[in-house]
DNA sequence: CTCGTTGCAAAGGATTTGCACAAGT
DNA sequence: ACTTGTGCAAATCCTTTGCAACGAG
């Protein structure tokens, strides 16, 4: 239920800048869409998996390069949730991320939650908040209850 | 002239857990307080600087270990602002961080800005937001105006 | 055919870990 | 003295880069 709606814009977006549409790029974009909140590492793993035994999956470096490119094209976004693990998600549906500092679980929330804060920041500091990149950390209900909070 | 007012709680906090008060720990804590929003690297540099020629500054690994410890004690907090650069700040005055995705500039804002959002998250998801850890990314006025935004 | 892309492998930077010695209580 | 903490160096992890071969347009 993921890839039937091929992102028409991909090819055009690329050509518009003299760039080329390659299978690797389509694969990476597809993977990001399927695995919401995936790290480059995870995306690479998924691609290997999909490639099967004989198939060849894009190299790690290609994954990184492609992710960077797709982000420049505005097709994906990344967020740093914690230590060394940026996660990417397709930009289709903007949402903000909420990460549990204990278990690492990621939840999504309505971007509108920050509208008020965003407006005040714009007014006070002239700072434009990028809601798609926002990550709030805290403690999820489960961890809070199991007392795992302050590990 | 920096350590006049040694944080009284430090020694007690440590002893309370059977831990020891060492000069390194005092130095690291002092450095974090002085340099608001410093990375471990920056903190290390500062310590070397203060140590002077003959003096010995804490090793990098000690800085990392100490930072982790101080955070566990609740004396400092860290936030991931971007790629590989967690920044630490003394927990005295809670505030949220706003980072410019273009120039990396860090601004502080009133935590109360998020109160509303925090309440809704608590109500909807049972998620407790840790305001001290929050970082919002976006574009600062200067970058927005100079068009450096989409580098 | 031409130039952007990829794969591979090595380079780099940041953070962590094991261990023996030094230091706080 | 006993146990925790530190410094040093090696080990990891994640990401980036150089370069020759490959493939899209």
TrEMBL record, chains A, B:
Cofactor comment text: Binds 1 zinc ion per subunit.
Top-level division of the source organism's lineage: Bacteria
Cofactor(s) this protein cannot do without: Zn(2+)
UniProt keyword Transcription regulation, yes or no: yes
Parts of the chain that traverse the membrane: none
Family membership: Belongs to the Fur family.
The protein's name in its UniProt record: Nickel uptake regulator, Fur family
């Amino acid at each position: 239920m993921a890839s039937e709606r091929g992102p028409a814009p991909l090819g055009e977006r690329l050509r518009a800048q003299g760039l080329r549409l390659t299978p690797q790029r389509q694969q990476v974009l597809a993977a990001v869409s399927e695995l919401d909140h995936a790290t480059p590492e995870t995306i690479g793993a998924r691609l290997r998996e999909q490639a099967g035994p004989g198939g060849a999956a894009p190299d790690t470096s290609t994954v990184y390069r492609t992710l960077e490119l797709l982000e420049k094209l505005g097709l994906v976004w990344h967020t740093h949730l914690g230590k060394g693990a940026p996660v990417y998600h397709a930009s289709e549906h903007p949402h903000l991320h909420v990460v549990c500092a204990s278990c690492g679980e990621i939840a999504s929330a309505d971007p509108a939650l920050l509208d008020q804060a965003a407006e005040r920041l714009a007014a006070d500091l002239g700072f434009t908040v990028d809601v798609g990149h926002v990550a709030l950390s805290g403690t999820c209900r489960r961890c809070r209850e199991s007392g795992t909070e302050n590990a």
